[in-house]
Structure formats: structure tokens, C-alpha cells
Amino acid sequence: MKRLLIANRGEIARRVIRTAHAMGIETVAVFSEPDANALHVREATSAFALGGTTSAESYLRVDRLLDAALATNADAVHPGYGFLSENADFAQAVIDAGLTWVGPPPSAIRALGSKSAAKALAVAHGVPCLPGYFGEDQREATFVTEAQRIGFPLMVKAVAGGGGRGMRLVHSADQLLPALKGACSEALAGFANGDLLIERALLRPRHVEVQVFADALGHCVHLGERDCSVQRRHQKIIEEAPSPAVSPELREELGRCAVALAQAAGYVGAGTVEFLVDEAGWARASTGSARTGDGSTRTATKSVRPEPVEGLTHTSPFYLMEMNTRLQVEHPVTEALTGLDLVEWQLRVARGEPLPLTQAQITFKGHAIEARLCAEDEHYTPHTGRVRHFAEPPMVPGLRFDHALETGSEVTPHYDAMLGKLIVHAPTRTEAIDRLAHALDQTRLLGLPTNRAFLAACLRHPVFHEGGALIPFLADEGETVRAMLLPPPDAVLAGVLAAAFGAQPPATGLACPFPRPLRWLHGAQVLDVAVQEQGHGALRVTWGERRVQACVSPGRVVIDGVTWPVATAALGAGRWQVQAGAHTIALADLSLAPRESAGGASAARDLRAPFNGKLIAVHAQPGATIAKGEPLLVIESMKLEHTLAAPRDITVGSLSVVAGQQVAPGQLLITFSA
Q1: 506-530 b/e (C-beta count within 10 Å ≥ 16 → b)
Q2: 213-239 pLDDT per residue, tens
């Protein structure tokens, strides 16, 4: 292996490049038109233009990827994750072209890449699965019949792909057909395969996955578990290892089942076997103590058998979800805990080498947590735009930041919303949580909404801090987490002053005898502030009944002696985004606007696009009366479908868009007549 083509983009491409170069292997980056100047393109030994804008026009083009390998004399291909990483036909095409495929054999991808096939294989080898329907008959009537047999609640899942796409939770029979339609549409768009399965749903489990690794010589090991229970839209945003709820006995059994499944499929390379852990069943079926990473333990009691889950004909402490036949986004958590480089292992195994370690030689040290930084707001709505200010936190020992960001980067609607991930490794779980939250606080990323502060609030939430977060954590505690994001008044004032004086600092010479009126909008709050410049950069600020002394200088605002580190980004049209301390504050300058425009009372008369995307369905028609909460439109953005519902009881006046159209943020979609 002399020259490795990475059939991917962004932070995973950079990650593979880093290890390949350390091993003396040259690299080839590929790129779409929007990625022409991306970091992974500049860091690779050479690069090849795929052309196109969307994934389908570039990173999903097997023919163009093979053209790239041929043109650049690459002798191996690493697929990264996402895109074609679990596509058996792509793997076979790479092998047929005489190249080394850095991944499992196509036969193993076919056996495990389909959730239906994986579950059938698992059942045959004694791996527990939830009752479900995994058949080829995809008629709606068949799903209805099978759902009655399985019972509710149940989960609808795409048989292909992952990342939470093509998944719907169904509580009752009347929700089944809409869920099937939505999941099929999302799966077709994301994976070109609309086949589905249904299985009984556990409502309050943990999501625990096991990292496995196998070589072509018949050896297979597991590298411990990762707890991925903090999710939104069925997508992980925080992962940690070890799980705060897994005992040594349960870890051994999870690892045994994961290895058995991988070996049954003839697996080679890195893979992840994902389970739902029923914590009640675990507590009654296990014995010993679960390691929390901070010196404390959670004691599990021993019983002859776990109590049954309501509606299930058999019980287990855990059930198979699926196996991902690729490297996972969260692999750095395992790397931190084991001290291993999993990409290096991938490359060595692809060259035919044996696994570097046996199961007995693999050890775990400390606690590791990863947080996924995404271009989305606190309500999980994706956003696009330009990164106008970016600065990493201080990179102290134990902190890792995998990303492909820089000031000026464009975040487009064509790819996933994930921007990067911060990983912390520390001696204890408590230290890891505190250090990761602090690193998020110190990360500067302005220009578009992100979940940076939301992630820090999740980490600091007492339920997560105590190790009690299950999959419904954000459904249960999301509003509490969002309430933790509200900035204190002085942070808002610091943001206003930083934005108001960002382009023109306060007078450093003579004082001004007249106060300067400022009027800014923060959320729904209008802030009327009077500022009198006192010379030497000092300000006297009046805000309602408050009077404070302030000083504004590059990178900081001092209010009554308290310093707020600040960073600002001008978004245009008087809009600013400011980070004051750990708080991100969206502001609009209304100082020169007519007073009546400040309230935005007419906003409810129409519906506008909240983000970039493709309009894939229109449920509203002119003249129709639609109740609050009923669907109006469906927009596909960043690989997911988002339904826009009526904000109140409305009558549709006119439609400004049609299905199939691309829409931009703020674009008029529907006008209401009542």
C-alpha cells in the first residue's frame, strides 16, 4: 500500500490522512465543487476533482471514484464513514479494479449491512433480537398484519444505512402507515433503498455498542463498549466509554455476542455491533458492579432470570439493533480508552497483517467522552451558512478535536450537519465531563447556529452527570437543557456592546457629553440602552433602571469590573452573532429602524423556510383550513426530512413554492389568509 485514496470528505478524510502519512503512505483526496478548497483537499498528497455539487453527483459516484484512483495511481481505497462506506457493490468494484479495499469483504457487508439479514444471522447464532418482521414482502398490508402480531410500540427502520435516517417510532396502529411512508421516502433519498423492517420498541433503553476488529487470518477481538444513549432524531450526539451502566460480566457477554456475529459473517476489519440494553433486565440478570470511571460503582443484583418486558415473549438484558460495517464517527472514544489507532489497524489488516493485539492484551484506562458539534440550533433544526469566526479551545493534554473547520468555511445543505467532534480522555468520568464542557465553552464558532452550548448543557445536566441518561433523555429533559442556555443579563449586555462598538471602538480621547441611544433585539426582547462615551474607551451605560460602567476593547467587554471574553460575527442586515463567555447570543440592530418594526407582529401571517433544502412534499392547498400542528410542507435538508406544521389554526391564502423546488432560509413558502 503506497498511495491511499480516501473516498470521503471533511473531518474523517483528514483523520485518515493523518494516520496514513504517519505510516509513510501517500494520500489522494477527492472533492466536489463546493469542497474545492477544503482542508482535506489541501492536506492530502494529491487531489482529484469529482465534479458536481450534491452527494449523488460526487461522493456517491462509483465511476468517478474509480476514475480518481486510476488517474492518481492509487493502489488502495478507504471509504471513511457514510457515503459508500457500507456499499457492497462499491467494495466489489474497488477489488475488481485491482485495488486494496480498506474494509470488510463485500460478502460480509451484504450479510450485515442489511439489518434484516443481520438479525437473521444473529438469531441463528444465539444473539438476542427483539421480535419483529424482517421479510422481503414490503406491502403495507403485510406490515399491518405483522405489526398486530408484534404489538405496539414498535420501531420502523430502514434495512440499509444508518445515522437515524429512515427511522420512526410508532405507538399505535393509526401511526403505522404514515411512519412507513416517511421512513421509506427518507431511506430512498439517503441510501437508494426503501426497504423497511419493523420490530418491537423498548421505550427506555440504553444504546450500547461494541467495537470489534477482525483480520483475514481468523482472529477477532472486541475493544469494549461505548454508550451512545444521548440522541436527537435517532442520531447520537454524545458518546462515552466505558458505559456507566455496564458491569464486567455484561461487558464480557456483549463482547462475546459481538465477536460471534462478526465471525459468523466472515468479517474482516473494523465494525460496530449495536445493542439496546434494557437496564431493568440488566440489573436482574447481571452480577457485580458497573464501572463509572470516577471511582464509584453501580451495583447490580443477581437473579435467576430478568423480569419480562411487557408484550415480549422472551427476555434478555440486551438486544441486537444492527452491525455497522465501517469505522464509526465515535471511534476516537475507543482510541482514547485503549491508546490504539484504529485507522492504523484498518490499514494493517487491509495489507494482510494479523491483528496487533490479542483479546488478553487489550486494556482500558480512564474515561473518554465525545461530543458531536453540529450546525443546528437547540431545537435540532439544521442550518447552513459561512463560518465567520472559528478558534479551537486550548489543546491541553487529553483533549482532541477532529474537524474540518476554518474561518470562511461554507456549510452547505448538501452534506451532513456534523462539523466536528471534541473528545476528552481523563482519569475519571467526572473529570472527563467537566473538561469536555469547559472545552466546548472555549470553542469559538460563529456565523451560523450550532449546538456547542447545547452539548455543554447536556454534559452538565444532573441526569447525565449521574450516569442516568437513557435514549429518551432529550425527550424527557430537552426543555430543561434549553433553559440552561439562557444567557444572564450581563452576557447579553456584553454582546450588545461588543456588536455596537465592534467596527468603531469607543472614543479613546475626549468624552462625549451626549448619550448615544441603542436599540437591539435579542430573541423576542427589545433592549433599549443609552451609552455615554467617557473617553479612554470607558462607557457609562444605562439599561432600564441599571447604570453600569463598561469598557470595550478587542476580544473583551468589562462590565462593573467583570471581564467577558467576546467574539463577534456580522451576519449582514444589522444581524450579529456574539459569543460572550460561554454564551452564544443572536442580536439585531434596530437603532435606526422605525419603532413599529421592532415587534414583528405580522410574522405569523406567513410561513418562511427556516433553512436551505429541497421541498419534497406540499400538503397544503389554497383555501384549505388546517389545524394547528397539522403538516403543511416537508423539506429535505442535510439528509433528513423535516415537516413544517401549522403554527396555529390557519386558512391557506397562497402557495409560493412547488414540490421539487430548492428553498433558501427566509424564503416565502405559504401566505395565510386567516
Answers
A1: beeeeeeeeeeebbbbbeeeebebe
A2: 999 999 999 999 999 999 998 899 999
424, amino acid identity: V
Q: Which amino acid is at 206?
A: R
| pLDDT-based confidence at residue 279 (cuts at 50, 70, 90) | low
Residues 6+ away with beta carbon under 8 Å from 96: none
Q: What is the DSSP string of 61-76?
A: -HHHHHHHHHHHT--E
- Mean pLDDT calculated for residue range 599-606: 57
Backbone torsion region of residue 572, taken as left when φ is above 0, otherwise alpha when ψ lies between -120 and 50, otherwise beta: left
- Amino acid, single-letter form, for residue 20: A
Separation between Cα atoms, residue 134 and residue 152, nearest integer Å: 16
* Cβ–Cβ < 8 Å for 257, 244: no
| Contact (Cβ atoms closer than 8 angstroms) between residue 460 and residue 369 | no
Residue 651 CB neighbours (<10 A)? 13
The verdict on whether 165 is a catalytic residue reads no
Residue 191, pLDDT > 80, answer no
Long-range contacts of 669-672 (CB under 8 A, 24+ apart): 669/606, 669/607, 669/608, 669/609, 669/615, 669/632, 669/633, 669/644, 670/606, 670/607, 670/620, 670/632, 670/633, 671/605, 671/606, 672/604, 672/605, 672/606, 672/607
Q: Report which DSSP code applies to 129.
A: B
Q: CA-CA distance, 550 to 538, in Å (whole number)?
A: 6
Q: Which of 326, 388, 429, 452 is catalytic?
A: 326
The whole-angstrom separation of Cα 182 and Cα 156 is 10
